[in-house]
Structures are given as structure tokens and as C-alpha cells.
Amino acid sequence: MDLSWIFWLFVVGAPAAVAVTLVLMLTLVRPHRWLWVAGTTSTLMAYTLPVAGIFPSLNLLSGLAALKGVRAAPLWRTTWMRAAAAMALIQLVATVWSPSPLGGIREFIYLLPFFLLAGAAYQYGQQQPHGLLRLYRVMLWLSLIQVVLILLFRLVPSVEARFITSRVAGLFISPNVLASLFDGSPNNIFDANKAGGLFVNANAAAAFAGCCALIAWQFGSAFKQLDLRVIGLLQWVAVFFTGSKAGAICAVVVPCVLIVFGLLRGYRPSLLQLASVCFLVAMVAVALPIAWEMYNQSGFSQASTETLNVRQRIWSFAWGLFKKHPLIGLGHGGWELKFPFYAIANGLNANYPPHNMFMLLWSKAGIFAALAALLFSISFAWTHLRMAWQASGRAAAMPLGVFGAFLWVFIQAQGENFGILGEPHITTVLALAAGGVAALMQHRRADAPPAP
Description:
Number of domains: 1
Shape: globular
Radius of gyration: 22 Å
Number of strands: 0
């Protein structure tokens, strides 16, 4: 009689039962307390002991523990929330035909905090709006740790190398990610012209900095908090120190989009603001010829062309596979099985991912997951633009900040591998901002929202 099933039941079932029991016990704690834990660890993550080969962070555990956030019914009536849920469920279903089904389950678990934290933030904003605003402030202040590290690592690359190879790094960067970094991972953190802070990829670091920059700046405008606007400015400056070319482009394009939106909305700047803009325009006019000369000498254009060339070769391979498997994709782990042969033949790194959010989703779960992501993106952006358009006075800055942060991440995700909701730092910030702003906008329709 084969009793091997008893062994596997014990090996797999016992840890799963313990994990489920622990999560259920944690749900007895009020959700807003887990919200604070998630918000304050959105930068540091705080990785814990391994569980079945995975190092869950305190940020992830607190997001999962905010289970009562699932009861935020008004959010579930929005198209963007339902589309995101459909995207997550399709990825879970894709484990059925995946070469690596555990990878799909892991993806699903890492997506859950977005829904739970957004719901918990909505509930917290409904019950204690001032408490939520304090959380935003603390979260954004703590994000300055990332700014300091980016500046330090860019100016002194040897410090970054010592940090990455130290045991301390495993507290703030997933040990599995660090292990893959020394095993052929295509991340660019060892490039002296790039800096990631607590990220092993400068492009992801730039996306997180841009996300925090726009939320901090716009929330600072809404609540007349100078410190938040300073944080936003510092985060924006840090983007250029990451060395990310896509981040630098977004740092110019996305703020311009928000300015144009403000002008279309009929925003009337004060005399001081007009004078400041005129001064900045004059400074740009003086600095532009110098900057153009430095640009030509820096190799930025050549580096951008080379990066795009690599992306195009990856996308060409993905397009060929898409025509063969449009509906169900390759399954979780399928890309990792097929791409190395093409990469070796074409002189590419065999560990390169698709480098596009839609191709990434298609490769894992098929065309319907990619379409759900598209619907989510359009709905999320439209919802916050509409809220900003309809809001009165300074309150419009809040949803506009969420829109700008999302637009930044969306643009960079078209050439990166972190997806639209796949990077935990960014996912936490977007979830807290989106859920909280939805609640706060119901509290304030006047020109002067209460200060935190």
C-alpha cells in the first residue's frame, strides 16, 4: 500500500494549515493596525525567516493580515478593482497548465495585499481620516531612506557593493532576489552609473521614487504641508541619480501631463506662482544649450538606443510565441524554459524576462490576463482623473497625485519586468493611496480639506 500521500500531506499540508491558522488569528487585530505596519514597511520591507523556501516580508504578512479590508464594498463596485481581481484570478487559474504552478500561486499571494490594503485604507479613511493622513505622512517620511541610499550609492558605488554583499541587505532585500543576483540575474545594480538603494534594479527604484514623488507633492499641495512637497522634490531628484533612462524621461513627461491637466481644468495660478514659472523658464532657456551638449557627450542617446535594441529583440521573440499560443500563453515558468535557447543564439542574457507588462502577463496566463490588466489600467486612470476633474479647490490634488503615480509606473512597466502590480514597494503605496483617497474624497468637497 502506497502511503507516500501521508508524507506529502504532512510536508505540504501542515505548514499550510499553520499559515492559514496564523492569518486567521491575526485578523482579530483591527485592520488599521496592519495598515500602519504595511505603510511603515513599504520602503524597508523587513524580510523574515524562510517559509517553504520563500522569505515573506513583514510588509507582505501585514498586507495579508488586513483580511477585513476585503469587506470594503464600495471599492468592489469600481471597475478597476474588479478588473484587478480578474487579472489575479486568471493568473491563479493559469497554474493548471503551467510548467511551474507554484510560481503562479506565489504570484497570486503577492497580489492579494493590493486588494486587502486598498480596502483597509478605504475603511480607515471612512472611520479615521486624520489617522490615515498621519499614516501617509509617516510613510512618505520613511521613503526618504531610499532617497539617501540612492544618492549615497550613486556617489560612492563601492558602498553599494559592500551593502549588497552584506548580511544586513537580506533584511531589506529578499534573500532569494540577492541569491539570483549572483547567479546570472539581469539586474543592473552593479553598474557604477546606476543606483538602486534598497532595489537591485535601478529602473524599479526610479519607478518607486517617481510614485512617491508625485503622491508626496500632490498631497502636500492638498493639505498645505510644505514638508510633503519637499519630500516630493527630493524623490523627484533621486530619480535622476538612479541612472534609469526610462525614469528620467518619466520625470519630465509625467509632471508635464499633470500641469496640462491643471490648465485644462481651469486652474488659476497666483502671481507668485506665475513669477516662479517665468523664472524657471528663464533658467531652462539658459541651461538648455549646456544640457544638450552634456547629453551628447554623456552617451545617453547611444545607451538608450542599445537598451531599446535589446528590448526589441526580446519582444520579437515574444511576438513569435504569441502567434503560436495567443489564448493561454506559456504558463508560469514557460518563458524561462523557452527563452534561453533564443537568447544563447542571439547573444542575449538567458535570464531576461519579457520586459513589458502585457507580454509578461500574456506569457504567464494568456491574452485574457493581459486584457484584464489593460481594463484595470484604463479604469484606474480614468477614475482618478474624473475625481480630480470634479473636485473643488485643493482637494483635486489628491486623486491627481494617485493618477500621476500610476501613470509613471504604467509607462515604465512597458519596458520593465515588474508588471503593473508586481513590485511590492509600489503596490503598497498605490493600494494605500487609491483606497484612502476614495474615502477621503467622500469626506471633503470643500476647498480646504483638514490638515493632518
